[in-house]
Amino acid sequence: MKNAFIIGLAACLILHLWMLPVAAQLPTLPKSSVPSASPSLGASAYVYDPIGSPGLKIEVYIWGQVKRPGLYIVPDNTNVLSLISLAGGPDENAKLNRVRLVRSNPETKQQHVINVDVARYLETGDMNEIPGLLPGDTVVVSGTVFKAFSKSVTFISGIATIAAAYFLIFDPNYRR
Predict the structure, then answer these.
(1) CATH number, residue 159
(2) Which of 2, 15, 128, 141 has a Cα-to-Cα distance from 61 of 20 to 30 A?
(3) What confidence tens digit (pLDDT) does each residue in 119-149 have?
(4) Domain assignment present for 162
(5) Measured between alpha carbons, how far is 156 from 33 in angstroms, rounded to an integer?
């Protein structure tokens, strides 16, 4: 009976460890190889693609609660809503009323944040709520409080499982 319990506990431990994201195992790039979030803005920030769709292209970034975050090269008339759509759309934990657009000013080298309420656009259909993108813009789709809470609960339950397994296996006073 005890052996079956220990095997079951070990299986739970393995399952929790498998489900927990381990950030230490993710590869990290040296700072020099990470693309700048604010390339020099000017004529060189636009790209011409003779094979693809006509017009100039710009590099923009999208991070956070979308299905495919990353760097995108998009037409220069792309707006925040189009970029979110290109990134696979918001995931179920996206907070659409607090999307942030981080934009650099090339003259002052300052960054400023524009809050975009995509949820209001979805209610009203007013495209004035959705700003266009410029080269080097970064769109950040925040997650809900539930997302952060569920990650914390998963982490804490994994730690509790590891502690319980340790006491069951290695502490002779705990087993009776």
Answers:
(1) 3.10.560.10
(2) 128
(3) 999 999 999 989 999 999 999 999 877 766 7
(4) yes
(5) 34
Global pTM reads 0.59
**Overall domain count for the chain:** 1
d(CA 139, CA 102): 6
Q: Cα-flanking dihedrals φ and ψ of residue 167, to 5°?
A: -65, -35
What sections of the chain are H helices per DSSP?
A: 2-19, 80-86, 118-124, 145-170
Joined together, the tokens standing for residue 89 give: 């759309």
Q: In the structure encoding, which two tokens stand for residue 129, read together? A: 């709520």
CB 37: neighbour CB atoms within 10 A?
15
Could you give the residue ranges of the DSSP H alpha helices within 66-117?
80-86
pLDDT in tens, 52-111: 667 899 999 999 999 999 999 999 999 999 999 999 999 988 999 999 999 988 788 889
Residue 50 lies in a domain: no
Please state, in angstroms and rounded to a whole number, the distance separating the CA atoms of residues 163 and 172: 14
Q: Is residue 120 part of a domain?
A: yes
Q: Which amino acid is at 56?
A: L
CB 65 within 8 A of CB 141: yes
Please report, as a single letter, which amino acid is at residue 84. Answer: I
Task: Give a yes or no: residue 153 inside a domain.
Answer: yes
Phi first, then psi: give them for residue 54, nearest 5 degrees: -70, 155
